[in-house]
Amino acid sequence: MLVVLKRDYSDLAREAASFIAKAVRANPSLRLGLATGTTMLGMYQELARRHQQEGLDFSRIVTFSLDEYLGLKSDHPRSFRRFMQENFFSRVNMDPRNIHFPDGTITDAYDEYCASYEQAIRAAGGIDLQVLGIGRNGHIGFNEPTSSLASRTRLKVLSPETLDDNRKFFGPGETVPRCAITMGIGTILESRRIILLATGLAKAGAIAAAIEGPVTASVTASALQLHPDVTFILDEEAASRLKQKEYYRQVLEMTAILVPSRLS
Ligand code: F6R
């Protein structure tokens, strides 16, 4: 596990974009797992800038999104599909055939549908690089506390804390979806590389638990400790409750000398 500490949000967004840009240049057919959410906005903006100004090419990139609300059509203003369309897909040269998203409109045969999403990931050759955010309760994707650490893509009921966090994105008359389809922890752990981004004080407790706490289904991001190639990209606020910050800085310095290819 590598912990990369950045001064503020714009440094964090640039670092994450550099990490992805480097992976895209190394493998133009990269299979990318993507998260939505406020944390990701700066990174998508920077990737779009690199596409427009530096010609970063997404034409052969294949994406699998982590999750989608159940009950929202793909063009619903609050759907994750729409978020991704507006903030990323429409701003780069993605081939629409390469974009994969859980379908939030299904109304039955959930297990079969979720198995087919897993099958699509497998058929594409698996995810090379998975990008994650983290919830205040330590969730990744919508793997809420007590999710099995071996879970696969499935329907998940959102926790009260997540519903609270999501409420701000919905208007006064709008119903906040109570369920989502999400890749599971087992699915996420099969990705070859993982980066997790976190910004702000609200995430500091979850980050400390995920990185320095025990591996537990109560903080599903802690399962990332079991993965051999995870990089946490944090700003100072999100890192503020980590006990070993000095050590992480030293590891980063040594990594830059010994294995520079590991860094963006
Ligand atoms: C969304 C997702 C979630 C978010 C997390 C943080 O696709 O997978 O786990 O990454 O809830 O959301 P923000 O960035 O809005 O704080």
Briefly say what this structure is.
This protein is an alpha/beta fold and 264 residues long.
Q: How are the secondary structure elements laid out?
A:
Elements: E1 2-6, H1 9-26, E2 31-34, H2 41-54, E3 62-65, E4 67-69, H3 80-87, E5 99-100, H4 110-124, E6 129-132, E7 154-157, H5 160-167, E8 179-182, H6 185-189, E9 193-198, H7 204-212, E10 230-235, H8 245-258
Parallel strand pairs: 1-10, 2-3, 2-6, 3-5, 6-9, 9-10
Antiparallel strand pairs: 4-8, 7-8
The chain binds fructose -6-phosphate.
> Helical proportion?
25-40%
The kinds of small molecule bound in this structure are: fructose -6-phosphate
Unreliably modeled segments: none
Rounded mean pLDDT is 96
Structural account:
It is a single chain. The chain is an alpha/beta fold and 264 residues long. It is built from 8 helices and 10 strands. The chain has helices spanning 9-26, 41-54, 80-87, 110-124, 160-167, 185-189, 204-212, 245-258, and strands at residues 2-6, 31-34, 62-65, 67-69, 99-100, 129-132, 154-157, 179-182, 193-198, 230-235. The strands form 2 sheets. The protein has a 7-stranded parallel sheet, with helices on both faces. Strands 4-8-7 form a 3-stranded antiparallel sheet. Strand 2, helix 2 (41-54) and strand 3 form a beta-alpha-beta unit. Bound molecules: fructose -6-phosphate.
